[in-house]
Each structure stands twice: as structure tokens, then as C-alpha cells.
Amino acid sequence: QVQLVQSGAEVKKPGASVKVSCKASGYTFTSYYMHWVRQAPGQGLEWMGIINPSGGSTSYAQKFQGRVTMTRDTSTSTVYMELSSLRSEDTAVYYCARETITIFGVVMYNWFDPWGQGTLVTVSS
Amino acid sequence: DIQMTQSPSSLSASVGDRVTITCRASQSISSYLNWYQQKPGKAPKLLIYAASSLQSGVPSRFSGSGSGTDFTLTISSLQPEDFATYYCQQSYSTPEITFGPGTKVDIK
Questions:
Q1: What does the alpha-carbon distance between residue B62 and residue B48 come to, in Å, rounded to a whole number?
Q2: pLDDT tens, A9-63?
Q3: B73 in Cβ contact with B18 (< 8 Å)
Q4: Residue A9 CB neighbour total at 10 angstroms
Q5: Is-contact A16 A9, C-beta < 8 A?
Q6: Do A109 and B91 touch (CB under 8 A)?
Q7: What are the pLDDT digits (tens) for A67-99?
Q8: Confidence tier at A104 by pLDDT (50, 70, 90)
């Protein structure tokens, strides 16, 4: 079955970087874009960016431009999200989510399914 | 940026109740609207895509409607496992996805 398995929880100090992995299985890795979404404690969902596992191209939310880097390793079907210059406000659960696309007539719709289980990143001195 | 709002932000309901959650976009997004359910400590789960299409495996008591700027998620008869937080998401401005702030459904 289609599955996304993320790396374990991290504790980082302010100013440090964190790299979270998301290993895909059960489908052709290079055929689906992958997104990263985060959720601060008790808060809603915030989109961070997207990576095309086929060519490696990326697009990031303006809020994270300059601090986030998304990469992939096609040999292991894994995508990575690295966030630098961490601050306390970056404490959150980080999710990867596969984008699924369907065409209805001439219209293309997309949504996220499935999601990884989430990785808690805690930033604390 | 397309802003999404949801109402109410929370509601209390009983098992068997009909529940309706509203999502509004700051500009027309046609039918590029998805709904997710999230339970505490878990990842979001897709319920409805393209405003009204039921994801495979999701119970038929869930339904979605709307287009343009106004959308609705309806649970026809609330079940104990439906107590959760529900998020709408617009994909009109892909890849710049935005989510609504969520609606928490809890037990009355």
C-alpha cells in the first residue's frame, strides 16, 4: 500500500538546522509531487513547499524562502526537508504529503493523500 | 494570496446529529476545494476532493458541496469516531496551497 514514513522526533537549539526525511513506498516515487506542511502546537496547517521528485525542482512558501531546502534521493525514494536558523516559533509537527492529481474532463484537480505520520521538531534552548 | 475562513471554529454536537461546516475563500476557487479530518496526534486524512467527490473508503455520511467562494461539509449523522477537527484546503493557486483555520467538532 502507499505509505510515507518520516524520521523521528528532533530537539534543536535556536539557530540550528533540522533535516526531516520522508520515505515513500508502494508507488512510483518520481510520478507524484511531494509537499511539506507543518502544524504548530494547537494550531492549524501551514503549507511550506513542494518538490518534484522526478527532476528535483522546488517551490517554497514565501514565509520560508531562504530558510528551507527540499531535496530528494531517487535511489531510496526519500524526500528531505531542511529548515535552518531555527527559532522557538518553528516548534511544530512537520508532515510530508503526496499530491494526487485527477483530471475531470479538461480540469485538473489535486489534493494530498496520503500523509506521513508527522515529525515533531522542538526548538528550545 | 487566497485566504480561507471556516465557521464555526468549534461546535458541540451529539451522536446522530446533522453537522454542517462552512468554508469560504477570499476569491473564487471554482471547485478546487478539499476537506480533511484530523484526530489528535494523527495526520490529516482526506475526506472530500474537488468540492464534492468522496474519497474512497470514506463513509457516505460525509458530503461536500459548493463552488466559487462558498463551500460546505456535511456529516448527515454524526458518529462517535467523527469527533475531530476538520480543515478545508484550496488548491486553486497550486502550488501555493492554503488551509482554513479548522473546525473542532466535540461531544455535547
A1: 8
A2: 999 999 999 999 999 999 999 999 999 999 999 999 999 999 999 999 999 999 9
A3: no
A4: 12
A5: no
A6: yes
A7: 999 999 999 999 999 999 999 999 999 999 999
A8: confident
pLDDT tens digit sequence for B60-106: 999 999 999 999 999 999 999 999 999 999 999 988 999 999 999 99
Does residue A105 have a pLDDT over 90? no
Q: Using CA atoms, how far apart are residues A89 and B4, in angstroms rounded to an integer?
A: 22
What is d(CA A94, CA A79) in angstroms, rounded to the nearest whole number? Answer: 13
| Structure-block grid coordinates of residue A121 | 521538531
C-alpha cell at A37: 506542511
CB contact under 8 A, A109 and B101: no
Residues in chain B within 8 Å Cβ distance of A2:
none
| B104 contacts in chain A (CB < 8 Å) | none
pLDDT of residue B18: 97
Cα separation of B71 and B5, whole Å?
A: 10
- Asked if B91 and A44 come within 8 Å (Cβ–Cβ), the reply is no
Chain A hits for B45, Cβ within 8 Å: 115
Q: Which of B43, B50, B100 lies closest to A104 in CB terms?
A: B50
Answer yes or no: are the C-beta atoms of A108 and A100 closer than 8 Å: no
Cell of B33: 476545494
Q: Which residues contact A20 (CB under 8 A, 6 or more apart)?
A: A6, A7, A10, A80, A81, A82, A94, A96, A119, A121
